Amino acid sequence: MNDLFGSIGQLPGVGKERTERYAKLGIETPFDLLYHFPRTYIDYTKPVWVEDAPNDTPVAVRCTIVQKIAPVYTRSRMALYKILATDGMQDFIITYYNNPYTYRALQTGKEYYAYGRFTGGLLRRELRSPQMQSVENAMLLQPVYPQTQGLTSAMIRTNVKRALSMLTADVETLSPALLATHDLMTLQQALRAVHMPKNTAELEKAQRRLAFEELLLFQLGTRMLRSRARTETVTPMDPATDLSDFYNALPFTLTKGQQLAVDSVIEDLCGTVPMNRLLQGDVGSGKTAVAAAACAFAAKNGIQSVLMAPTEILAQQHYHTLSAFLAPIGLQPVLLTGSVTAAAKRKIKQQIAEKQAMVVVGTHAVIQKDTQFADLGLVITDEQHRFGVAQRAALAEKGGVPHKLVMSATPIPRTLALIIYGDLDVTVINEMPKGRLPIQTIAATGGYRYRAYDFIKQHLDAGEQAYLVCAMIEESEQMENIKAASSYAEDLRKNAFADYRVGLLHGKMKAAEKEKVMAQMKDHELDLLVCTTVVEVGVDVPNATVILIENADRFGLAQLHQLRGRVGRSSMQSYCILLTDSHKEESRERLKIMSRTANGFEIAEEDLKLRGPGDFFGNAQHGIPPMLQTALTGDMPLVAETQQAADAILRADPDLRQQENQSMRLAVLRLFRKNGANGLN
Ligand code: ADP
Ligand code: MG
Questions:
Q1: Which helix H or strand E contains 525, and what residues bound it?
Q2: Cβ of residue 532 lying under 6 Å from some atom of ligand 1
Q3: Quick check: CB of 410 below 6 Å from ligand 1?
Q4: Which of 32, 239, 482, 530 is the most buried (most CB within 10 A)?
């Protein structure tokens, strides 16, 4: 019955309800649970003297219970439990409210570690509702798990303990040689130690082993994808294909960076190996024109292209932009999104199947659903930092072996790019179209709000437009955001901006509504657009010159940079106002970085240092394991070490067919499959 890979329900205390809660966290087996790593650890290794313990700060003390004082019941039927304790130097009182269990469990005369916050003056210190562990079997580094879905840390700890007891040596993924060469713990040791560390040194060693494994598997996976793609062949396109009509019809001349990017794309298209290229360029660097050139080149070679965007709005916009660039040369793109009517969809799909439509723009979901291409040869994805390597691998399945170009608007630090995009060649556009004035950015407190409104009005009066971003909280709390945005917009319409046309855009609006609002903004039927972060995704309204961001401290720098990129899209001077009421030094510092630099890559580096790599990977469920995230921030040498290890392994055994690499191969497949990719097998 002890099945590490069976249902989590077999663990004692895990009934139907808790099984469901675990399932929501993606944990279905005891083994999965072992990969639910602690968020942090309570450190009992250095208990303080009560005398030295500051108030209102969590501390650990070692103490003996002197006397359990009889409970007191307040008039509101609260039970107050008081316990007299001492650390040998000073007496103090432990109090619990409505917690008879802990009170009863504590034994007079026995020694405990207590962890909590002190209150009170020198003479009468009080420790409120501390966590207690008896000294004889204490965990000196007690894991604290991310507490979600009604699962407390204590419950998880108990379940983990049991799961650990089921763990055997044969879960090992790395070969003995690899363990020895890189001085790594076994997987069994590491999992045990990460959940029940004896001391900090052991914990660090365990974390290193787990991070090593994740980095290694990830890199093995991307390298295998890459070399697999390299074994496929395509019919090369003609390098003599003439694009001059395309260039002549463009409303501008490509920047040097754009031209270089187009050149490398064309070189790929004229090769026999399918293109696998990442086009990285800061917001506003003009990636769409590069995509358009690629589509034109392919079409002239009789090959169909598709440009996929993560959202409806963005697909719309790409469609308009590509139409403007390509229609003049007789290449009218078609649009496939959720809001296209069924009848229209059928017609468009027929055009695609019959090769009347050479360039298709749309959302991933719609395009991937039963669209038959006559001759699809080029897939362009506008990634906007939402898609991981696994999604791209899944994409690679579709339509034989098309050339693939991924456009990413999130500048990514070099090391990260190497890992996330290990399967791709990278082109960076590191220059902006000429004539752009740097956006002036200021960070201010909420007290500045009304002056900021006046500032915005001046610009609206001059015929310009503005955004007001008011996502109050994280994206996950969507409803709250929408309420906030709606009531904010309502308030502005009635009061501060009564004389202006104020629009509202949020994530829960129907696609058609969003589209309408965006179109109004583009056509200058709105002066001010109040929005949640949905506006972040590549929206292009060149006449918008001011963006005000409420609660700016809640956003990652990369995201602020994206938002800021909504303005400064023409030759007019633009402004970004970051409002925050946070008094934290750290938030202030972060916002100052925004005022200091407009360079997305620099901002990305800072963001990586300050917040870890989470932001670059988007949703954690979409590909990047947490231990890897930790490793990436803290331990770049480990990244290099695993890169070398992955290269060495694949040099000796390109498909991981050798006996000693079997479990590693399975682990790579597991990692990539879990994330939706079937590109490896
Ligand atoms: P992003 O790289 O953020 O996707 P876009 O492709 O949306 O950037 O381009 C941003 C804006 O710059 C668009 O309005 C586009 O028409 C314009 N643009 C692109 N390339 C050039 C250029 N070489 N010269 C002038 N404007 C350009
Ligand atoms: Mg774009």
A1: none
A2: no
A3: no
A4: 530
